[in-house]
């Protein structure tokens, strides 16, 4: 093989490796989701709502997300303006996020979350529906 053919082959190989590197799948915030640990929660002033953050590609739990937006309202029952106080509690295990809410009425409640995931760009937004039971 001549020197020019070797250089051409080496160049083609370099281009192929670069293209392969660019096409490697990168995670996106759409690869993650919040899931309720329980869909029925006891109604009351100190109702505890647990959610886990899951990497949908692997099924593994994701710890250390930064929850920066929380809201709970009765939109599932047609009362979106009926909101309740909610606070973030310390996690009991990695990948599980806890909230305490004042669920004053039995019925459907929507938990809206906004989070940043370490190492990912963009914001994960999620709306989960649960039921407060007497």
Entry keywords:
134 residues, four-stranded antiparallel β-sheet, 1 helix, YtkA-like_dom, YtkA-like domain-containing protein, signal
Structural write-up:
The chain has 134 residues and is mainly beta. It has a single domain, classed as Immunoglobulin-like (Sandwich), CATH 2.60.40. Helices cover 15% and strands 49% of the residues. It has 1 helix and 9 strands. The chain has one helix spanning 3-22, and strands spanning 32-36, 40-42, 44-55, 66-74, 79-83, 86-89, 96-103, 107-116, 124-133. Strands 2-9-8-4-5 form a 5-stranded mixed β-sheet, with no helix packed on it. Strands 1-3-7-6 form a 4-stranded antiparallel β-sheet, with no helix packed on it. Strand 6 and strand 7 form a beta hairpin. It is elongated, with a radius of gyration of 23 Å. It starts with a helix and ends with a strand. Residues 13-25 have low confidence and may be disordered.
CATH class: Mainly Beta
The proportion of residues forming helix, as a percent range, comes to 10-25%
The H-and-E topology, N to C, reads as HEEEEEEEEE
Adjacency order of strands in the biggest sheet: 2-9-8-4-5
- Overall body shape: elongated
**CATH fold name:** Immunoglobulin-like
């Amino acid at each position: 093989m001549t020197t020019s053919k070797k250089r051409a082959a080496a160049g083609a190989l370099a281009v192929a490796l670069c293209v392969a590197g660019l096409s490697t799948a990168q995670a996106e915030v759409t690869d993650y989701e919040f899931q309720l640990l329980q869909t029925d929660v006891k109604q009351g002033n100190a109702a505890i709502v647990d959610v886990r953050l899951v990497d949908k590609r692997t099924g593994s739990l994701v710890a250390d997300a930064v929850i920066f937006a929380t809201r709970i309202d009765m939109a599932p029952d047609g009362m979106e303006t009926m909101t309740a106080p909610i606070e973030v509690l310390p996690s009991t295990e990695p990948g599980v996020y806890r909230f305490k809410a004042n669920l004053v009425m039995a019925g459907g409640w929507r938990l809206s979350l906004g989070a940043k995931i370490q190492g990912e760009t963009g914001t994960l937004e999620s709306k989960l529906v649960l039921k407060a039971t007497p």
